Amino acid sequence: MSELTHIVKQMIQDKKDVVRSIFFGFLAGITAVGLFAANGYLISQAALEPPLYVLIAMVAVVKIGSFIRALSRYAERYYSHRATFTMLSNLRVYFYEKIEQIGPALFQKHRSGDLLSRIVGDVESLQNFFLRVLYPPIVMALVFLSTMIFVSFYSMAIVLCLLVGLLLTAVIIPAWFSKRQKKASSQILEERSRLSIDVAEWFYGFRELTIHQKRKEKEQDLVSSSNRYIKEQEQAGIQSISYQSINMAVSLLVSWLVLAVGAFLVASGELNGLFLAMLVMISFIVFEQLVPMALFPIHYEESERAASRLYSVADNKQLTQARLVKQDQDLNLNEGKAPSVHLKDISFAFVGDSRNTLSDISVSFPAGSKTAIVGPSGSGKSTLLKLILKQYEAKGEIFFGTTPLKQLDQEMLWEKAKVILQENHFFYGTVKDNLLLSDPNLTEDQLQQLLIDVQLPYLKLNDLVLEKGQNLSGGEKQRLAMARALAKKGQLWLLDEPTSSLDSSTEQCLYDLFFNQAKEDTVILVSHRFVGLEKMDQIIVIDQGRLVEVGSYSKLMRSKGYFYQLKQIEDSILQ
Question: Start and end of every ABC transporter domain (predicted)?
Answer without folding.
Answer: 341-569
